[in-house]
Design a protein that fits this description.
Layout (H helix, E strand, L loop, with lengths): L1 H19 L9 H19 L3 H10 L11 H26 L5 H18 L8 H11 L8 H26 L16 H24 L7 H10 L4 H26 L5 H18 L4 H17 L8 H26 L2 H14 L7
Helix pairs in contact: 2-3, 2-7, 2-11, 3-7, 4-5, 4-6, 4-7, 5-6, 5-8, 6-9, 8-9, 8-13, 9-10, 9-13, 10-12, 10-13, 11-12
Length: about 350
């Protein structure tokens, strides 16, 4: 018993050290500032024109700035423009699935598998497929009429275009004082890394949404996003750490969001608050993921719900987002256990290979 207690103490101490460790970062302050502009300028324009709802949709496209790598200018712009195309396509597919509720889950599975394969094949780094899936999930739960689809997709495209312009001017400025990293070679496209992992991730993301639908959650867009954020860990330990960071960060972040939503917010204050949150998130995320999640939570709540604030009780919104996060993290943890289990990979991978043509097997 004494030996087991000592081992448990060591595990708890190691987990505590992991939770409180702050990573060093040489990220220049200009990048968080540019990220805040990329998501904030559409909001400012929308607020100025009296259509904050349009600004929120365009701000979603502004998230593609976060895919700007530290490589030479040509590689940066290729990456950001490809991310812009993927963001627009994923949002459009999500919007279309809104009109046929039975297609929401299959459409999200398809989007997740496709963008996960693309991100792994081309070695796209953090945040990976996360924001593409978030765009599809938000689109699936956006209330609109058929004739509004081109408008909404166009707004995301305009936000993504603005983000590309900001990425270009930011890169042109920062490369004057910072030597870029070389463009990394493409990773080896093995079957397990590109196909198997992507399919399992997509199926578990779809499963999380299916469970949310069975539980009749009203706006379940955050469940698959939380699932994906957890399941993407490079190892089972990383999956567990990501889940713990996300749960604790979300719990504290919901308290922050609750405090913000109790304030007499109006369009201008919401816009400035979101820009400030975006700056803090981009500054903190490379140092401590859990701390960044504290501010990611209210930012995403404002991004998704700002246009309808005041139409329902704040407590119900906060409770729903916390339940969504817990459900998504639990499904993501289960998916992570499967992905990093050798027996599961051998059995399921063998069956999956039979469905894939030999020339795609890697």
């Amino acid at each position: 018993m004494h030996g087991k207690w000592t081992e448990l103490q060591r595990l708890l101490q190691a987990q505590w050290r992991q939770l409180v460790t702050v990573n060093p970062s040489d990220r220049p302050w200009q990048k968080p500032f540019a990220a805040a502009l990329a998501s904030g300028l559409p909001l400012l324009i929308g607020t100025l024109l009296g259509r904050m709802d349009y600004g929120l949709v365009a701000a979603l496209g502004g998230l593609v700035f976060l895919y700007t790598p530290r490589t030479p200018l040509y590689h940066r712009m290729l990456t950001v423009m490809a991310a812009a195309f993927a963001m627009i396509a994923c949002y459009a597919l999500g919007l279309l699935s809104h009109f046929v509720p039975l297609l929401k889950m299959p459409a999200l599975v398809f989007v997740t598998i496709l963008v996960s394969m693309a991100c792994r094949f081309y070695g796209l780094g953090v945040p990976g497929s996360l924001f593409f899936v978030m765009a599809a999930s938000l689109g699936a739960y956006t209330p609109l009429e058929w004739q509004q689809v081109p408008l909404m997709v166009g707004l995301v495209a305009l936000g993504a275009l603005l983000a590309c312009l900001i990425a270009f001017f930011y890169s042109a400025y920062i490369l004057r004082s910072r030597e870029p990293d070389p463009a990394p070679p493409l990773p080896v496209p093995t079957f397990d890394f590109v196909v198997f992992d992507s399919v399992v991730i997509g199926l578990f993301v779809g499963l999380s949404l299916a469970i949310a639908q069975l539980l009749q959650l009203e706006k379940a867009y955050w469940v698959p996003v939380s699932c994906l954020a957890v399941i993407q860990g490079a190892s089972l330990q990383a999956v567990w750490n990501k889940q713990l960071h996300r749960l604790l960060g979300t719990a504290i972040g919901l308290l922050v969001a609750w405090g913000l939503l109790l304030l007499p917010l109006e369009p201008w204050s919401i816009t400035l608050t979101m820009m400030l949150l975006a700056f803090v998130v981009e500054t903190a995320v490379v140092r401590h993921y859990g701390f960044a999640v504290i501010f990611i939570t209210p930012m995403t709540i404002l991004l998704a719900e700002a246009a309808t604030l005041g139409q329902g009780p704040v407590a119900a919104l906060i409770e729903a987002r916390f339940f969504d996060t817990v459900l998504g993290c639990l499904v993501g943890l289960a998916g992570g256990v499967c992905i990093h289990n050798a027996r599961f990979r051998a059995v399921v991978g063998r069956q999956l290979r039979r469905l894939v043509p030999a020339r795609f097997g890697g």
